[in-house]
Amino acid sequence: MDVLAGRKTGGYIEGSISISGYPKNQETFARVSGYCEQNDIHSPHVTVYESLVYSAWLRLPKEQMFVEEVMDLVELNPLKNSLVGLPGVDGLSTEQRKRLTIAVELVANPSIIFMDEPTSGLDARAAAIVMRTVRNTVDTGRTVVCTIHQPSIDIFEAFDELFLMKRGGQVIYAGPLGCHSHKLVEYFEAVPGVPKIQEGYNPATWMLEISSTAVEAQLDVDFAEIYANSELYRKNEELIKDLSTPVPGTKDLHFPTTYSQDFFTQCKACFWKQYHSYWRNPQYNGIRFFMTFFVGIIFGVIFWDKGNKIHKQQDLMNLLGAMYSAVLFLGATNTSAVQSVVAIERTVFYRERAAGMYSPLPYAFAQVAIEAIYVSIQTLVYSILLYTMIGFQMEVGRFFMFYYFILMCFMYFTLYGMMLVALTPNHQFAAIIMSFFLSFWNLFSGFLIPRTEIPIWWRWYYWASPVAWTIYGLVTSQVGDRSDMVETTGEIPIAVKDFLEKSLGFDYSFLPAVVAAHIGWVLLFLIVFAYGIKFLNFQRR
Questions:
Q1: Which residues pair with 144 in a beta bridge?
Q2: What would be an example GO MF term here (predicted)?
């Protein structure tokens, strides 16, 4: 079924697929079909209604949206304002999530819907509710194709036709079930040696039992060969031949654009969903702001008024240590925390991209844009706490530069975490890669060993460490132009700016380049994240 729906990502595919006699075009087919995966994948922090509005917004013109009608059809109105939640943790039950999965596809008004084991993992009652939803869908004139394992009698007889294969992919029955499965039963009972079905017995169970490999060996028959020589097979071949030829006067289905909505609308819709997702995620954002406030207070108290004390060499090193701790501690926390959020949303992205809802770049834009808003607020709180408690000069220009460097630092740390998730199969692997490079960023940040003391053949990595640029910018923008004299070990007092340039390699005239470099780091990680999302697909089907 994955092959028919165009969702297969691995293995080899042979043969051809045609739609109304024309070769199948996956981009076009995705616009007129729906696919309900076995694992119900949805953004956890939006409501049921918002999930449907979002799907309809991206897949249909506004005047054609019929969200309310679909909610009635799949009986989701009582859950309209409920959060979807994470499977097995909170939010909707398995059966409710299954109905939401069906509804998300139905709002796109597809002609055909594929469902991968819609009753998997459900008890009898829940399975009956889901199958009632499926039957309601069929009654609206849509075709539903399901894979299903060991269904009950009621569920099995809700289907109109059956396509049965034995191990190895060979077809042993393809045709109508009939009332109470009588056509299926008549077909197999006509095979010599096959036992009659007992009254009240489940036809699905009986069908699997009498077509097993053991029964084939016992009866010395090959059900695939029997089917290939049957009248049913010949009728199916004739039907396939007829449907493989386009009807005179018809044209292949074509859409003028790849996606239903334009680029701006895709960006707007993706940002709308991310906005609601982040607003309702206190586990992530609540802890983020608590950590920001707590760490800001701690560092502010530890480095209280160090910004005004630059009379000795140790005072400057203390200030350097304050900047090093301030950016690396909370920056690394941002990198780590964002990975699980992006990893969850990436699984949703795979489903939505396969459905042809949007291109990858609007998704990347929305994810980065919403993070930028929260990081900006986080940085403002952190900057006010640190700047006032450390005691830097109260000048608007200096505060703006301090805020700018902290903001860009937190942004590239956050984007670094997002980028690693986009480039790796899972966020556990991303965390390993993150730790490896953060260790080098830490080592070559210019605090543990100043750039002037790093061996020349390793000095290039100092410039390849974003943290080094941030510490350079923070220290230089605050005290890099000061002419106050500072006492140094074993030497006569020299000006602060001269000491910074001589001992640490911090040149105030280089500050514009440092400002530009921060923009470069942010853009680098942003571009790699966007194109990683676009070109890499770690989903295996």
A1: 113
A2: ATP hydrolysis activity
